[in-house]
């Protein structure tokens, strides 16, 4: 499956000027939904170990995505539009 690309612009951007180029970010909501469904099913079955393992993998995947996203923002001089991760 191909990733979905989302067009991101700064709030003060005037249609992608040279100073503030748009950034494309990868998303795959189908995969994320599938991962969350796996966690929900494991919880419903009382399998905390499987739920924890699936949640850990999902969190690692989201962190990888955010690392790429933040690198792209930084490369274009755009501040992260959310608080730092903890």
Verbal overview:
There is one protein chain. By secondary structure, this protein is mainly alpha-helical. It has a domain at about 5-10 and about 25-75. The protein has helices at about 30-45, 50-75; strands at about 5-10, 25. A two-stranded antiparallel sheet has the order 1-2. Helix 1 (about 30-45) packs antiparallel against helix 2 (about 50-75). The radius of gyration is 17 Å and the shape is elongated.
Overall helicity? 40-55%
The computed structural class is mainly alpha
Low-confidence segments, ≥5 residues, pLDDT <50? none
What number is the mean pLDDT?
Answer: 79
User: What is the strand tally?
Assistant: 2
Give a short account of the largest sheet: 2 strands, antiparallel
Radius of gyration: 17 Å
Strand fraction equals 5-15%
**What separation lies between the terminal Cα atoms?**
31 Å
Side by side, the strands of the main sheet go 1-2
Taken in chain order, the helices and strands follow as EEHH
Q: What overall form do the CA principal axes indicate?
A: elongated
Enumerate how many helices there are, as a single number: 2
């Amino acid at each position: 499956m191909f990733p979905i690309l989302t067009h991101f612009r700064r709030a003060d951007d005037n249609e992608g000027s040279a100073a503030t180029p748009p950034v494309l970010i990868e998303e795959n909501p189908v995969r994320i939904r599938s991962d969350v469904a796996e966690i929900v099913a494991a919880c419903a079955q009382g399998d905390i170990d499987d739920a924890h393992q699936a949640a850990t993998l999902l969190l690692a995947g989201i962190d990888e995505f955010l690392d790429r996203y933040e690198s792209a923002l930084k490369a274009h001089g755009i501040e992260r539009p959310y608080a730092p991760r903890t």
